[in-house]
Amino acid sequence: MTLTPHAMGTAVPRPEGPEKVRGRAPYAFEHPAAEPLYLFPVQAAIARGRVTAIDTSAADALDGVVLVLTPETAPRLSDAIDPDHGVLQSAQVHQHGQYVAAVVATTSETAREAAELVRVTYAQEPHVAALDEDSPELYGPDTLVTGAPSDDTRGDPDAALAQAAVTVRATYRTSMEHHQPMEPHTTVAVWEGGRLVVHEATQAVSWTRQTLAGAFGLAEDDVDVVAPHVGGGFGSKGGTHPNTVLTALVARAVPGRTVKYALTRQQMFDLVGYRPATIQHVALGADADGRLTAITHDVVEQSSRIQEFVEPTAAFSRGMYEADTRRTSHRVAPLDIGVPTYMRAPGEAPGSFGAECAMDELAVALGVDPIELRVRNEPEVDPEEGLPYSSRNLVACLRRGAELFDWSRRDPTPRSRLVDGWWHGSGVAAATFPVVRFPGSEARVRAARNGVAGNGSGAPRYVVEIAASDIGQGAWAALTAIAADALDVPVERIDLAIGDTAFGSASPAGGSSGTTSWGAAITEAAERFRDKYGDDPDDGDAADATTPDNPWAGEYAMHAYGAHFAEVAVHADTGEIRVPRMLGVFAAGRIVNPLTARSQFLGGMTMGLSAALHEESVLDDRFGHVVNRDLAGYHIATCADVGRMDVEWLDEDDPYVNPMGSKGIGEIGIVGAAAAIANAAHHATGVRVRSLPITLDAFL
Amino acid sequence: MKPFAYERPDDAQGAVATVSADPGAAFLAGGTNLVDHLRLGLATPSTLVDVTGLTSTEITDAPDGGLSIGAGVRNADLAADERVRARYPVLAQALLAGASGQLRNMATTGGNLLQRTRCAYFQDLTTPCNKREPGSGCSALEGWARHHAVLGATHEPADVACVATHPSDMAVALAVLDAQVRVLGAEGERTIPLSALHRLPGGEPSRDTVLAHGELITAVDLPPSPIAARSTYDKVRDRASFAFALVSVAAAIEVVGDTITDARVALGGVAHKPWRATAAEEALVGAPATDDTFRAAARAELVDARPVESPRGGTAFKLPLVTAAVTAALRGLTGREEHA
Ligand SMILES: Cc1cc2nc3c(=O)[nH]c(=O)nc-3n(C[C@H](O)[C@H](O)[C@H](O)COP(=O)(O)OP(=O)(O)OC[C@H]3O[C@@H](n4cnc5c(N)ncnc54)[C@H](O)[C@@H]3O)c2cc1C
Ligand code: SF4
């Protein structure tokens, strides 16, 4: 079905906003508990080897210490878990910073002090932590983390490159990056009899429940995971990490007591995932008119030796442009470091840097405008699947952006505009992100005419429950609007409840899939409800539904598109870089809530700016850990880096994607943003920087 | 994090007496550096002696026309002072280029001077560091050394090597202003020129300054300085705000006709201490105020420079950067329009 929009498309303020600004919205750590205990871990000081002895006597003796757990004393976990999750299950050390013991105490300060008193002795083994393209350990994985094949070749791209009128070959590098949400990863766990109750900073209460149930050999119904408010995630709170398992494990040893563990900022760099560094070899061949005859995008990237995670870096190049021949491939370096994870637009974010910079280089080589080059290579049908598009408005985004950015007045000559001692230039790049629908979200609609939420004989209110997560993206507001339209009532009559496994299973806030997956489930439940009870239900009438399959899946290729424009200024003496202006124009179906959508696009663009100029986890391979491990060392963009940021979206009417007509918008804002900045920096200075972040030394 | 006692003596003498008598005691001012170090396990004092309110929080006019700044004056207040802004703009600019509004509201003049290096390995207890653990080695030499020194560092022998930089912006401005630091010790008061307060690592990188344990900074005196009325602080960093300097330049210059008649230059981000660039100053005075002169002056200062040649990011880029930054700063002060 397709919804008729009333609330959708209008600015719906966050229903939880007032609570948040008053500081009353409870985040995981603030969950009240009687006499909570605090956990602080002991972390491995080596990257690989074995713990040979742990002396906990000094820690045990400290006043306020309740328990010190080591691999020898920790309760056993089930064997059927990710290697990464086997905390305190063996003496093996597979990464620097790994948990090797844990202290629980009555105050967090005591726990921390005691952890420092634990003496650990190791038998160290040689480790490898540097990403080296020539490493004999490189291997070709079967699949990317998305499940798509690692390698894909169509035609003979090498032959096509050899014959092309114009070719561009270059190597691009992107950095290891760590998610830094304001709220660090946090777990508050208590065992109540055989049940495990967890308040968690997570993008996915159901996934967390599944992992914990698996780790402790419990039925999923015996685990509750609660997360009504989450202070940012960016992907690291999608999967479950060792910190969560550790807290639950420690809590098991003190049944009935609540154990709290919030990571320090430094620990955020150790074991809750990261975006792996990539080395991307890109080659483009084109005929004299600029039509692509070959695209190759061959990637080497980091992963962990104990658990594979293949960033789908080159996947971006599989569907973006028409080309007769094409090759995409991934090789993985298994390192003795933590396990990578999803980070906003995994694959598309780093992959678009290589691919969209290469397009810019090709435009320069051909003497063709970079927008025109992209228009000339616009595909008729999706190059990857051969399917028609449900809608594809990349060209419209490029054209609208060009208009807003005064592109027609741009002199393409690099290093031609010096203003007050700064070289200025502008650049463009394209963006895309797929429409993702995860199965299995359960939604429930219930009428409330009496009781706390209802108003007796007046118009019914509707309680809508789904175990969705709001990590700041605006699910509270968007799902309220969708429920209102699905039930054909004003938003004021909706009482949404999310972030609790008590509401059943739900897919995560990830893959820009939330609005599609949860919204489709809510719409279905509302439809069933109205079929059954009409518009004048009795108190307690209820209907359930699970995310339906999309009947158009397999018939159409479904993606959002966008165009980034950036103006960059580089100081003529010192090479300092500023971005006076960024513009993103997106075509992403119906925009359900313009208020929060704007923030999502802007947030993505800001993260792209940050990747372009700053974000780099400096992994010192001698030790095997990230050494710029706080926010003074790991830079994230500030307001002063950028002048004006504008976002616009095009109206797009797509009846195929879902009942709302919406496409995901959480990630597309970052895709291509760094490439636009790098392309603008080249236009400003004539210097092509192919490695992120772009720092001033490149221009000295 | 180790438990500690917290004390608030009645006066500065009492604070000095307490800390002097106890090798485990430390002064606490705004706490923006020290409290971080407590959390990191980097500082493990047994007693914290809070000096808030024990040293002056006033900026007073000195009889000679200079200013006297109490050690307790917050960075934000010092930057906002009208006299500082008019007479010593380099100081106001340096302060505003440092940290963030919130931090400047807490940070004090004394604490700012004695903040410790941001070297990543110094702050990480799991890696060798001669400054933190004498004799353990210097991890920065072959490590991530983007923020490290090009001047006055100790590269060898390995057990005393240290290539760290002092992170304060304010101190670089004070160096160019010939500030004097007033210090109270168990034996009484003494005055130290700012340029002599911080040390080069030499053979003893664990010591940042010439202060003895228990010596308390009570004030910083600025002599009158007509040249400072036209002074500037240019900070080059990896991020436009809230980042430590890669290289910074504090400068003041006087030009008569086309000739430079007087010049003051100090550099930040290049050494274990704020670096007064006396060789550059000598090269400037008497020369024409041109980009060529400015570049030559910067190069004169760098004659003995030795960058960190680390495979994981060294400081070779700082040599051209110092030259570029000095040139841009002096050009800005002289209002000239040439460019590289
Ligand atoms: C994220 C971040 C970014 C920053 N960015 C910058 C920057 O860009 N530029 C910059 O210059 N600084 C920067 N800083 C550092 C900041 O300026 C210092 O932390 C601050 O100035 C220290 O002052 P405080 O009063 O808080 O000192 P405290 O932390 O209280 O003390 C620091 C040290 O000085 C000692 N001490 C304090 N007062 C006295 C005294 N009167 N006599 C003797 N000893 C004393 C203490 O014992 C301690 O060893 C940054 C800090 C942070 C956390
Ligand atoms: S540079 Fe100095 S502070 Fe840094 S690791 Fe080396 S010895 Fe330690």
Describe the structure.
The complex is a heterodimer of chains A (700) and B (340). With 700 residues, chain A is α+β, with helices and mostly antiparallel strands. Chain A folds into three domains: 35-46 and 48-126 and 187-269, Alpha-Beta Complex (Aldehyde Oxidoreductase, domain 3), CATH 3.90.1170; 152-177 and 275-379 and 392-435 and 556-699, Aldehyde Oxidoreductase, domain 4, CATH 3.30.365; 438-546, Aldehyde Oxidoreductase, domain 4 (2-Layer Sandwich). Helix content of chain A is 22%, strand content 25%. Chain A has 14 helices and 27 strands. In chain A, the strands form six sheets. A seven-stranded mixed beta sheet of chain A has the order 3-5-1-12-9-10-11, sandwiched between helices. In chain A, β23 (557-571) and β24 form a beta hairpin. With 340 residues, chain B is of the alpha+beta class. Among the domains of chain B are: 5-50, Uridine Diphospho-n-acetylenolpyruvylglucosamine Reductase, domain 2 (2-Layer Sandwich), CATH 3.30.43.10; 230-334, CO dehydrogenase flavoprotein, C-terminal domain (Enolase-like, domain 1), CATH 3.30.390. In chain B, 28% of the residues lie in helices and 20% in strands. In chain B, the strands form three sheets. A five-stranded antiparallel beta sheet of chain B has the order 4-5-8-6-7. A four-stranded antiparallel beta sheet of chain B has the order 9-10-11-12, sandwiched between helices. In chain B, strands 1-3-2 form a three-stranded parallel beta sheet, covered by helices on one side. In chain B, β11 and β12 (275-276) form a beta hairpin. The model of chain B has no long low-confidence stretch (mean pLDDT 97). Chains A and B meet through α3 of A and α12 of B. The structure holds flavin-adenine dinucleotide and iron/sulfur cluster.
